[in-house]
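Technical note accompanying the year-one report. For the benefit of new consortium partners, we illustrate the data format agreed upon in the data management plan: each record pairs a sequence with a structure-token string. No post-processing was applied to the example shown here.
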Amino acid sequence: GGWVPSSGTQVPHTVLEQVCPTKRPCIATQDVTFPQPTKVSRIAFRNHYTASITIRATQDREALRRKDTDNLEGWVTILKRARLMDDPHSEDTSQYWHSFGPDDLTGGSGEDAFVGLRIFFY
């Protein structure tokens, strides 16, 4: 899967290690960083046993360095609790591909360029 910008092509990005503040089960987070500010109009990926996700975006590299996921300063939620599996207790839809576009992504104007995303896995 890839993170797809408004031009419809995959942009350079770095996916950092997933973080879980306690023993599993927990709400894990994973950051995606861009080398330069990037407009995000579509996000596409293959799921791997995650029931739902929230995605926050930032234009502030300092906010990206902070690992305190409760501190929302500098972050905007662009996708909130999007359901990825029909039933989290069944494997039937656990590895489907998902694509979220302009009708799904909120919080940014569509013209906003971000330096990073933080994904919350539920």
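Partners are asked to follow this layout when depositing records. The longest strand covers residues 28-39.
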